[in-house]
Amino acid sequence: MTAIASGIGPVLGGWLVEGFSWRGMFCINLPLAATVLLSAWRRVPESCNEQTKGRVDWLGATWATLGLGGLVFGLIKSNARLD
Q1: Whole-angstrom Cα distance, residue 14 to residue 25?
Q2: What sign for the dihedral angle of Cα 29, 30, 32, 36?
Q3: With 42 labelled, which of 9, 35, 76, 82 sits at a CA distance of 20 to 30 A?
């Protein structure tokens, strides 16, 4: 699938840009996402273990969010420091 997507993606993107608009490339995501979600819902079996008891790691989720957000913020602001 990766090889097919690598071959078809640029051709389809070029066709959309030439035939419609560059905004057309973003519209192709909606039917593709709907197809993938429907296919996954129908074909992928449920893997949730009902007997497992666990809690959400709120502290870890908070630190991960702050860390990744800080990294993104730093990357965005690093361009301003070069000017």
Answers
A1: 9
A2: positive
A3: 9
